[in-house]
Specification:
Elements (H helix, E strand, L loop, with lengths): L3 H7 L4 E7 L2 E9 L5 E4 L3 E8 L1 E6 L2 E6 L2 E5 L4 E4 L7 E9 L1 H11 L16 E5 L2 H13 L8 H16 L4 H11 L7 H8 L6 H7 L4 H12 L3 H19 L4 H7 L5 H12 L3 H9 L1
Antiparallel strand pairs: 1-2, 2-9, 3-8, 4-7, 4-9, 5-6, 5-8, 7-10
Helix pairs in contact: 2-5, 3-4, 7-8, 9-12
Length: 292
């Protein structure tokens, strides 16, 4: 099911339509001149097609950036990074959401299409990124027509359309890799806290986001983090981000706004207050004092 957080985001779109079948969903949306920054947690596995514009997805160990004509299949627990759109620019995407139960049933039904020897060891991969070929473009055109039908297509038609998408992927050139990735999606494992933190400490994610990426509850994450780092996540992240800001002040010509965001903060005023409190001097004076 689509989470309340995602529904709130989609409702901000200029155009938002959704098809549902059992626990599977297909979403088509577009927006322009969007001046917010959102980070959306994905509780189910997701396949995203970027039709126009660009989009980013954060997994425990990587930041994936997609342009128009690209797609990505990510495991549950990933985060969609929705940045502000430039003036007159547009974002259009089609998203498919899959539960563990659905993927497990699909693999069971079609396992004979892939010999066990063809499966790959891809334990460290949390996403499958690819470009749209002619087959996939034709498929997306056919899906688009489903959103225009009134009344909404019956559930069995939507189910078959979703199944068709996965069949296209497991019969493509990278079928061994994709089927291996699907099986990896069903492993319910925690991601290393060290990997999640070291990869994402400067990405303006809060403690809740890092806990989601680690596949841990907030209390579990805080407890394990404190054990490993002997500090709370918020305090440790604040120190690391402030340390990076001092390096950027001394080694680059970036302005304060750029340094704020590149260090992992999302509010310039808040960043300056934290910097002043920690170093007893403002960022600009810190740069001037140590460069004169």
């Amino acid at each position: 099911m689509i989470s309340e957080e995602l529904t709130t985001y989609f409702n901000k779109a200029d155009n938002f339509k959704m098809l549902k079948s059992d626990q599977q969903s297909i979403v088509q949306y577009s927006m322009k001149d969007y001046d917010y920054m959102d980070k959306l947690y994905i509780k189910d596995h997701m396949l995203m097609f970027v039709i126009e514009g660009n989009q980013a997805v954060i997994t425990p160990n990587f930041l994936y950036k997609l342009e128009s004509g690209e797609a990505i299949f990510v495991k549950k627990g990933s985060i969609i990074l929705c940045e502000k759109l430039k003036k007159d620019s547009k974002l259009q995407c089609v998203l498919f959401f899959f539960t563990d139960e659905y993927l497990s049933k699909f693999i069971k039904n079609y396992r004979e299409m892939l010999a066990p020897s063809e499966l790959l060891n891809i334990d460290s991969i949390n996403a499958y990124q690819f470009c749209l070929d002619s087959w996939m473009k034709s498929y997306l055109n056919s899906v688009s027509s489903y959103f225009e039908i009134t009344p909404e297509p019956v559930a069995i038609l939507i189910q078959k359309k979703i199944e068709e998408l996965l069949l296209l992927l497991i019969t493509g050139q990278e079928r061994s890799y994709f089927m291996s990735f699907l099986k990896e999606c069903l492993k319910d494992e925690h991601s290393s806290i060290e990997t999640v933190v070291n990869t994402n400490m400067y990405r303006n994610l809060n403690v809740d986001h890092l806990a989601h990426l680690s596949n841990l509850s907030l209390s579990q994450f805080k407890r394990e983090f404190n054990y490993k780092y002997n500090d709370s996540p918020a305090s440790w992240l604040r120190k690391k981000r402030l340390e990076k800001s001092t390096k950027l002040l001394l080694t680059t010509n970036l302005n304060i706004n750029e340094i704020c965001y590149d260090s992992g903060f999302n509010n310039v005023s808040h960043f300056c207050k934290l910097f002043q409190k920690h170093y007893q001097i403002s960022p600009l004076k810190y740069r001037g004092k140590l460069t004169t």
